[in-house]
């Protein structure tokens, strides 16, 4: 298996056939994790690459080093040359490359691959010494540079929606390729595989509609009576689909999530709840999100036109290329009952939204929004709520995790 290093740095290739378009802007996706740790389908990008290459080490920005070391046993930003002591030939892979593309896996030694749409480096096959010398913003020197015409990298938050379907399809081909027995009283529909982990519980009267794609139900997941699951979709480990819920296609729930009402085309990183009625479509949710009862989002403009969004609160409007785009919701976001979230909204990490006006545009991180207006969320109060929410799952935030949150809060002030 080919050796690889996954990097989450903004790099370009010298002599690239397309201009380097500047850094990726991915907040809130990457506020509390490296780009390769984002759940971009059923799996994270790192999990997906690790099935086709041997990931020796990881490279991340300075602000994510401690958090990444806490999550992974692999070397992070140091000790890379010692990994396995194997031959000096390594594939340097952009951790924002959602799928293991054949063009990257087939690179000749000394060659680089660049995404045409962004000018960003996708992969580079080189020596360990060259790889370990990389720094943020560096331009790598290569023998040859090839261009990939289709989008393969996350460079804006909404690209997690753009690349969603291909990632979910690839993951389900691996995870749901072996059909399992259907529990008594459960109604299966369609010819695509349905895989239910032996430890999962799927109640009678559940409908599993695999007409348009596979369905995967992970370890210790629960699907309550009357729920309807439409493939392709995946229910992660220890997650719960509540009674009479409708989970539509292109949905992937991470571990320890809870959903009710109507959910479609949505990825949840993990540990997040939408436990009441309301619609959630074409969205991405980080961890520790809680959507109050009746929270509903729009994922389609009344004009059926292309959705325009801003990657940052003060940024310029950009074309997303998407007709269907719901919300990108950062970690630890909370919404009050009956909150409305407008098409293409981006909600920053740690926001508490309790205003009657709808969420729209791009909301700064750690916003406290009520009918009295919007102001910064007091960080000590935020941490009290975060600790309380995490304690419900018997998790205590580490000093490193709390420090990263404090740093993000300080950056926004």
Could you please describe the fold and organization of this structure?
The protein has eight helices and 37 strands. The protein is an alpha/beta fold and 413 residues long. The strands form eight sheets. It has a nine-stranded parallel β-sheet with strand order 10-13-16-19-22-25-30-33-35, with helices on one face. β36 and β37 form a beta hairpin. The model has no long low-confidence stretch (mean pLDDT 95).
Strand count: 37
Q: How far do the termini sit from each other?
A: 46 Å
Number of helices: 8
* Molecular shape: globular
Strand ordering within the main sheet: 10-13-16-19-22-25-30-33-35
Mean pLDDT: 95
Approximately how much beta-strand content do the residues carry? 25-35%
Indicate how many domains the architecture comprises. 2
Q: In this structure, how is the largest beta sheet organized?
A: 9 strands, parallel
Question: What is Rg?
Answer: 21 Å
Multimerization state:
single chain
- Determine the fraction of residues in helical runs and give it as a percent range: 10-25%
The CATH class assignment of the largest domain is Mainly Beta
What is the CATH-assigned architecture of the largest domain? Answer: 3 Solenoid
CATH-derived topology of the largest domain: UDP N-Acetylglucosamine Acyltransferase, domain 1
CATH level-four homologous superfamily name of the largest domain: Hexapeptide repeat proteins
Structural class: alpha/beta
Uncertain segments of ≥5 residues (pLDDT<50)?
Answer: none
Key traits:
413 residues, alpha/beta, UDP N-Acetylglucosamine Acyltransferase, domain 1, nine-stranded parallel sheet, 15% helix, globular
């Amino acid at each position: 298996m080919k050796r690889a290093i996954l990097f989450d740095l903004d790099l370009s290739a010298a002599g690239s056939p397309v201009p380097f378009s500047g850094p990726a802007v991915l907040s809130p996706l990457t506020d509390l994790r490296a780009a390769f740790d984002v759940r971009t389908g059923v799996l994270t990008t790192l999990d997906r690459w690790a099935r086709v290459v041997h990931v020796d080490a990881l490279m991340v920005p300075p602000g994510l080093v401690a958090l990444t070391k806490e999550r992974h046993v692999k070397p992070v930003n140091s000790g890379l040359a010692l990994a396995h002591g194997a031959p000096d030939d390594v594939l340097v892979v952009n951790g924002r490359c959602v799928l293991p593309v054949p063009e990257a896996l087939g690179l000749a030694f000394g060659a680089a691959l660049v995404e045409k749409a962004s000018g960003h480096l996708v992969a580079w096959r080189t020596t360990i010494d060259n790889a370990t010398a990389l720094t943020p913003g560096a331009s790598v020197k290569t023998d040859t540079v090839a261009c990939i015409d289709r989008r393969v990298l996350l460079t804006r938050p909404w690209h997690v929606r753009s690349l969603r379907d291909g990632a979910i399809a690839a993951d389900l081909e691996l995870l749901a390729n072996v059909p399992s027995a259907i529990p008594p009283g459960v109604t299966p529909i369609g010819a695509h595989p349905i895989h239910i982990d032996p430890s999962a519980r799927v109640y009678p009267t559940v409908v599993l509609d695999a007409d348009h794609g596979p369905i995967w139900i992970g370890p210790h997941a629960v699907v309550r009576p009357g729920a309807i699951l439409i493939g392709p979709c995946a229910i992660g480990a220890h997650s719960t689909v509540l009674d009479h819920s409708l989970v539509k296609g292109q949905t992937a729930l991470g571990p320890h999530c809870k959903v009710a009402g109507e959910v479609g085309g949505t990825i949840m990183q993990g540990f997040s709840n939408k436990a009441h009625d309301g619609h959630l479509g074409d969205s991405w949710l980080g961890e520790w999100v809680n959507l109050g009862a009746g929270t509903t989002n729009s994922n389609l403009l009344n004009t059926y036109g292309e959705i325009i969004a801003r990657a940052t609160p003060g940024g310029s409007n950009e074309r997303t290329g998407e007709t269907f785009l719901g919300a990108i919701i950062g970690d630890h976001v909370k919404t009050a009952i009956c909150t409305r979230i407008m098409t293409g909204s981006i909600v920053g990490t740690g926001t508490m939204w309790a205003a009657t006006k709808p969420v729209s545009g791009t909301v700064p991180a750690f916003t406290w929004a009520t009918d009295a207006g919007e102001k910064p969320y007091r960080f000590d109060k935020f941490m009290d709520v975060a600790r309380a929410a995490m304690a419900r799952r018997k998790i205590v935030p580490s000093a490193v995790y709390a420090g990263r949150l404090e740093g993000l809060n300080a950056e926004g002030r």
